[in-house]
Amino acid sequence: MASELFRQVRLLDPVAETDRVVDVWIESDSVRVIREAIPPGIADDVELPSADVTETDASGLVLGPALVDLYSHSGEPGYESRETLASLHRAARAGGFGRVLLLPDTDPAIATPADVEWIGQHTPAGLPRLQPWAALTLDAKGEQMAELGELAQTDIAGFADGRPIRQWGLLRRSLEYAQALHRPIALWCCDETLRGNGVMRDGPDAIRFGLPGAPAIAETAPLAALLECVAQIGTPVHLMRVSTARSVELIAQAKASGLPITASTTWHHLLLNTQSVGGYDPHLRLDPPLGTPADQAALIQAVRDGIIEAIAIDHSPYTYEEKTVPFAEAPPGAIGLELALPLLWQQLVEPGQLPALTLWQALSTNPLRCLGEELRAIPVGIDSQSAPDTPTPLTLFDPRPLWKVTHQTLHSCSANTPWLGQEIQGQVVKVFF
Questions:
Q1: What is the pLDDT along the chain (433 residues), one digit of tens a residue?
Q2: 33: helix, coil or strand?
Q3: pTM of the model
Q4: Out of 6, 246, 359, 419, which could bridge 58 as a Cys pair, Cβ 3.0 to 4.6 Å?
Q5: Which of these, 261, 396, 281, 257, lies nearest to 330 by C-alpha position?
């Protein structure tokens, strides 16, 4: 039985709010014991198999709860050339994820219990767990309510179309009906008529680059309307893809008044802004579009302050042929499951813009909090095999190694990322229980 003893690992536990150095004993890819110092040959009352154990000086490595992505896209079923469930599973594991929630915009959409069952049958076993959102509306088209009662009995994360709200009367009825189902609801605030043909955030940079701009009110106007609905109806809602400074203000005000809402932004919107679009890289054509530098700063501060609880990956794979077109014609979206943790760590944690514990919380335990799930601290000083609860998946991350982002180094079928061909720092070592 293979055993590894990692000494002097940095343990981040967002639930216990601790950041400390520990020793970790791993046996058959499962965590056996975590202690501040494991003496040679014994851990608590559990003997270490000293003859077979491999000891590693893990100074500089980071251990924390496995990451949880609130929303990403799978190509399968319907668009397997972009991504399969198997390739998505490999990419998510390589990126440190223990769970990824899939948006229902496949072909067919995940809109019936049979669709949910199909995803479960075709998902690879083991970590990470791939779990679908069920469409809030029939075929995720925003025209007719899906069979929410039947879907609520299946293995879904909750309800989300992953597309802009179109019919507010339908949304009101959906929120009223779903209230008794006690399932999470995730909504994206985007007014397509206000957005028009905009492909980047409206403002001086859009004018300078000669690209049609999408005004910030395309997000904030429907957000204000949705907050009024939540205040009236009372159904808890998760706000997806927050991308503007004004949205942060509205969400902070709503939370201060006691509205049952949570919020997330995507990792791209924390690292990039409208000034990044100057090279016309079609991989930077995103939806919502990248914000201004002021938007970016407000989003980072909102994550730091807890106004925005979670950082989502919104992994959106597209083929080379689909993305190799002029910027304004490219489909919006980029991949990110394998890249988010190292890039966020190097660009936000290392410069001191976000504490390490805050970043890890926004990528792991806070997404679970947004889903209304129970959180558990990482047991320290306890033999995990004798613990009564299901063990918490953990991710071991090394922020030091350099690697080049290429088609060969990525596990995803697609490589639509602005970091393609670049060298980045930091890599996940392992994900385990």
A1: 578 899 999 999 999 999 999 999 888 778 888 888 887 765 445 555 555 788 889 999 999 999 999 999 999 999 999 999 999 999 999 999 999 999 999 999 999 999 999 999 999 999 999 999 999 999 999 999 999 999 999 999 999 999 998 899 999 999 999 999 999 999 999 999 999 999 999 999 999 999 999 999 999 999 999 999 999 999 999 999 999 999 999 999 999 999 999 999 999 999 999 999 999 999 999 999 999 999 999 999 999 999 999 999 999 999 999 999 999 999 999 999 999 999 999 999 999 999 999 999 999 999 999 999 999 898 887 555 445 456 789 999 999 999 999 999 999 999 999 999 999 999 999 998 7
A2: strand
A3: 0.96
A4: 6
A5: 281
Residues ≥6 apart with Cβ < 8 Å to 99: 66, 68, 69, 128, 129, 130, 131, 393
Q: CA–CA separation, 121 vs 143, rounded Å?
A: 29
Q: How far apart are the first and last CA of the chain?
A: 16
Taking CA 124 as the corner, what is the angle to CA 122 and CA 128, rounded to the nearest 5 degrees? 125
Decide: 37 and 332 in contact? Cβ < 8 Å.
Answer: no
314 is catalytic: yes
Q: Which of 69, 314, 383, 389 is catalytic?
A: 314
Do 309 and 370 contact (CB within 8 A), yes or no?
Answer: yes
Q: How many residues does the chain have?
A: 433
What is the number of alpha carbons within 13 Å of residue 318 lying toward its C-beta? 21
> What are the strands, taking DSSP E only, across 138-231?
186-188, 200-201, 213-214
Neighbouring residues of 222: CB distance < 8 A, sequence distance ≥ 6? 164, 165, 189, 190, 191
